[in-house]
UniProtKB/TrEMBL annotation, chain A:
Gene3D superfamilies hit by this protein: MetI-like (1.10.3720.10)
Source species of the chain: Arthrobacter russicus
Protein name: Sn-glycerol 3-phosphate transport system permease protein
Entry membrane topology: Multi-pass membrane protein
PROSITE patterns reported in the protein's UniProt record: ABC_TM1 (PS50928)
Annotated region (Disordered), positions in chain: 1-31
Subcellular location(s) per record: Cell membrane
Automatic annotation (TrEMBL), chain B:
Gene3D superfamilies on file: Periplasmic binding protein-like II (3.40.190.10)
CDD domains: PBP2_UgpB
Assigned keywords, A-Z: Signal, Transport
TM annotation in the entry: none
Protein name as annotated: Sn-glycerol 3-phosphate transport system substrate-binding protein
Signal peptide: 1-28
Amino acid sequence: MVGTSHDRLSGTGGLPMKTATADQRVKPPEQRPRRAHPWAWFFLAPAFLVLLTFDYWPLLRTFFLATQGTDLFGAPSGFVGTDNFELMLTDPRFWNTILVTFIYTGASVVGKVLIGLAIAIPLSSRLKGTPLLRSIVLIPMAVSVAVAALVFKMMFQPGTGLFDQISGLFGAGPAGWLTQPQMALLAVVIVDVWCGLGISVLLLLAALDGVPEEVMEAAQIDGTGTLQRLWHVKLPLITPTLFFILITQSIAGMREFTVINLLTGGGPGTATNTLVIDIYKTAFGSGTSDYGAAAARGIVLLLIIVTLTFIQMRVLERRVHY
Amino acid sequence: MFRRSRLSLIAGLSIAALGLTACGGGGAGPGADGGPVKISFWHSASGAAGDSLNQQIAAFNEAQSGKIQVEAIYQGTYESSMAKLANAVQSGATPALMQASDIFTGYMIDSKLTVPAQDLAAKEGSYDFEDLAPAVKNYYTVDGQVRSMPYQISQPVLVLNLDVLAKAGLTPEDVPTDLSGLLSTASKIKRDSGIAGMSFFVNTWWNEQFTASYGLNYCTPDNGVQGQDATAFKYTDPKQVETWTTLQDLVREGTMVNTGSDATASVGAFTSGAAAMSLVSSGAIGNIVKTGVNFAVKPFPVSAADGGVVPGGNSLWVIGKDRSSAEQKAAWELSRYLGSTEVQTKNFVDSGYLPTTLSAAKAVASPTPQQQALLDQLANSKPTTATAGCHSGALGEARQALQPVLESMLGGGDVRAIFAEQESKAKDIISRYQQRAGK
C-alpha cells in the first residue's frame, strides 16, 4: 500500500508516523501494565535458560571451584580456602603471564585502532574505486581465525616461510618469528591485528560516514587544512566509535585464545603465555586437570577485565563527544 | 504466533540438551537386542599412524562382525585426550579402551580406572607377554606386572639428509655415535657448507632421552619402577647441564635450526634441506618417507656403556570403571588384536612406530635400510632402570612446567642455575600430585 504524501516526505516508506494524533491513539508499549503481557516470561524463558546454563552457572561454578582442591579427575576434593590463589600469586611465572597479557592486549588494540584509522580515513572519501577497496579490506572478516593463524604459521616457518624468504632476498637471516621471544610476541600481535582489522575498519567507516557534511564544509570555509579538519573535527566526532572499539577490543585481546594457541601455544618459553593460555594449560595442558588452580586464574581474568573496562569508562569517556 | 514461539522454545531446549550431551563418548555396551557389544576407543593417532589405526579398526570390526563393534574416536593430543578422560570419569561416560602416551603410565595406574593387561590375559584371553621386545616390556612393567598393551612404540633416532650431508663432504659413517661427537659434527657441517648442521624441536622428551643415554635416572628413587614412588626429578647432573649448554651454543651460532616446540617444522627444515641432520621420533619416519627425501636413519647417540633410549610412544588401557565385563572383554579383544604380530608388523611398515614384539620384528619382510636401522636400535636397547624411563604420575605436569623453561633457555641463560630452580619446582609438583592422588 502506498503511504500518504506526508509519509513519503518523511521517508518512512508508508509506516504510520508518530504524530501527536498517533501518540494520543497508541499508548507506548513501555507504559502498558505488566499484566498486559502474560506470555512475556514464557517467551523470555528460553533465552534465560540458555543464559543461566551457559553463562551464570559456569560463573558460579568457577567461584566454587577456585576454593576447592582437585583430585586426579578434576573433581572438587574439599574446601581449601584461598590456597589456590596463594599458590598462584606467589608464583613469579604468574606475574610474567599478567605482564605478557597486558603487552599483548595493548599492542593489538593500538594496532587495530591506528591501522584501522589509516585504512578507514582514505576509504571514507568519495573517490573512484573506494567501494571496491572497501570490500577488499573487509575480506579478512570472512576468514576463520583458525585458518588465518595456520596460514600465518606457515608463513612464519624458519628458513622456508614466506617472511624469511623475503628477508633472505635482502641478505637477512631467519628472524625466528615463532622461536625468538620478542619476535613471537610480535608475530601473534600481527596475526591478531590482521584478524581484527576488518571489524575495526567497518566500524570506523560507518562512523566517518556519519560525520555531517555541513560540519566539514563549515570547517573548510573557516579556512582549516585537511589535517586540521581531521584532527579537530573528524576524530572528535567519531570518539564514541573509537571508545567502543577500545573497550571491545581490549576485552577481546584479554580473552584471545585461538591465535596464540595455534601459533605458539604460549611459547617460546613464556613469551606469549597470556592468562587465557595459562588457564587452558592449567586445566587441560598436563592431562591431569587442575580445575581449582585454573578457576582461580579465571577469576583473576574476570576481575582484570571488569576493572579495565571500568577504568576505561571513567577515564576515556570524558573525552568522548556524543 | 504462539505456535511459532512454542516451536522456538522446543528447538532452543533441544539445542541446549544436545549441547549438554554432545561430549558423551562412553561405550554403548551390548545392544538390548543381543547384537554386538559396542565399545568406544579414544585415541590420539593422526597422520600416517592415524590412517593405519583406522584401517586396523575397520579390519577388526569386519572380523568381529555381529560380536564386537568398535567406534574409534580421535580426541586430539594426548594431553587433551587425558583431560577429556578426567571429565568422562565425572560423568560416567568413560571409553572402554584408552590410548595413553608413555608419560601417563604412572597416572593411569594411580587413577585406578584400569584393569591390568596381565589380569585380563589370565581371565579373558591369553597374550604372550614374553614375546614383547625386552626394552618395551621393561617400560610397561610396573611392580612386576605388564599394565597395558604396548601399541605404537617409538624411540628417538637420528636422521641424516644424505644430499645435504654430501655437500658438507660427509658420509653417514662419519657421524659419531655419541652425543657430544654428534653436536661437534653439526658445527663442522655449518662451518664447511654454510647449511645448518641440525634441526631440533624443543621438548622435555629430549631431556629424558639425553638423561637415559647417559645411563642416569630422570626421577628418583630408581625412576619410580622399583616399588617406591618417585619423589624428585633430576635435572642438574653435569652431563645434563653440559648437553643443554652445548645446544645453547649451537642455536646461537646458527648451527641448529631451532623450531621452538614445533616438531613438524623441525622435520620440515630437515626434509627441505635447511638442515643436514635431525633428532626425531621414529614415529615421524612414515611422514619423512612420504616426502621422498634421500635420508638415512642412525641410532640415537648413546654416551655411556649402561645408557640407552627410553621406548616411549603409547599403550592401550582397558577401562574398568563404569564399563561392564562384556565391554572390558571386548576392549581386551581389541587390545590383543592391536598388539598382534600381524598388526604390529603393518604398523611399523605404515608409520615407523616400532614393532612391540619380537615375532613382529622378525615378520617384517625385506625391510628398507631405514627400517632395519630402527629394528636394530630396538633390538640393541638395554632394559635397565634408566631406560625404563621415569614412572611418576606427575611427569605430565613436570613436563608442562619444564617445557617453556627449555624453550627460553636455548636463547641464553645460566643452564645450571635454571635447572636447579626447576628441580626444586618439580619436587613441589610431585608433592602436590601425591596429595591430589591421596597418597
